[in-house]
Amino acid sequence: GTSRRAILRAGALGLFGITMPTEWGGAGADFLTYVLATEELAYGDAGFCNMISATNSYNFKIRDFGTDDQKARFLPRLAKGEPRGGICLSEPGAGTDLQSITTTALRRGDGYVANGSKMWVTNGDRASVIALLVKTDPDAEPRHAGMTALLVDKQPEVAQQGGLTVSPPLGTSTFGDKVTQAAWQTRPNWYVLSTDDRAVSVE
After folding, report:
1. Cβ neighbours for 66, distance < 8 A, ≥ 6 positions apart
2. Are 103 and 195 spatial neighbours (Cβ–Cβ below 8 Å)?
3. pTM exceeds 0.70 for this model
């Protein structure tokens, strides 16, 4: 696993918020810089790189589409690597074809109730905040018009929490040869996150 000391050091170097504006605690760099940094990190440790990349990807969503309140609440902490963010996109029956997801979130009062399962969630157990891709209008055409990313708070390293279930780790990557597999073994393992009438407040 990755030591807390390494995570805090990466946060101090600005690696969790490479393209995040400086006003929110990021490095304020451009996307090319992010790509070059990712390449170097992956050369040294693909697993560590993936953990950082997952949080940066989460940050992109809030940076580009979040409200001012969300940016103020989440981005400064995420830029330091605490808390870590997770992105819940793929499902057992939907990988790159995200329009085929079946996880739904329907309005109930002032919030949503989510139901479904997500696969291969990096930082799945350690994340304190996740971006959950759902269908809020399953009948929409085109299908992507009915999809929404909800920001969901969760407790790190707690398997059962208010309708949210985090699986044991799925294990390391099975891509490629043994050298490739070994390179991925330090990564935060993939997890399944399942929602069963999970109440999500409106952000």
Report:
1. 74, 75, 151
2. yes
3. yes
